[in-house]
Amino acid sequence: MAGIRDSAAGGLRGVVDLLEQVEELPPGANGTLVLGSRTRPGGAIFVEDRRVCWAAASGMATRLTDILLEKSRHLAREDLAKIVKCCRQSDAPIARALAERGMVDDEIDQALIRHSSESLLALSRGGASMRWVPRARGFSSHWRLSTVSMLTHAAALAAEREQPDLTWLSELGASVAVYGRSGGLGLAPIATADIDDLGVRAIAELGPWVASELDLSRAIDPRAHNAVLTTDLGVSVTAWLDGGLLYAAVCRGPRTLPRVLNRYLQRVRQRHATAG
Questions:
Q1: Residue extents of the structural domains in the chain
Q2: Residue 192's pLDDT is what?
Q3: 148-275, what's its fold?
């Protein structure tokens, strides 16, 4: 599997660079990360306490309307156009405006996340200058995503992959990242669980690292299902492929690794028994 530093992963570096700007803000930071110049703005990332409320790229207002109308059966185009215009004038996230009007549900949430993901991918390709515009209070947004969650949503969209359910791994105490391949982003994290503390860059670089170790294990023994690595700090990482996706489970406690390996092997045997 290609690494994050390969040319195909240039888009992933752009997304990571943007979100890392948010992570580097001081705790409790509220405001807007503006891309582009004052005369030619490229877009913005609205931030509340170092979490993403909304991302917007220039020229994508019509796309937001289309996504919201596609996902929701309760919005009229005329009403939505008025809300979008008001948000643009007041520099407020549309999620808050919709929530204040009692117009938020799961479908709207998914539409807003999709639009922010599309905007983030567009912004990552621009290479525009950035400036931080602080705000005394937060945006009171209906939802806020961590930088890692925003990264995985954007990557899953680019890879055209559904985010897998990782409950069975998080219940075992593992911190997990799952990677899929996208032509625009290369090998990118499309889902995570309990691993936000590593930050977007470490999570992005974890995938190529475990992929190379898994390739090495299979070169030594073609029958190998997974690879196990141990860091200098005594943290173990096990990796495997499933359904075209690369799984990396970080095991920080001594009992976590055997639990994960045992459950993983059980699932492999069950799959083989079903197939047989």
A1: 7-146, 148-275
A2: 98
A3: Beta-Lactamase (3.30.450)
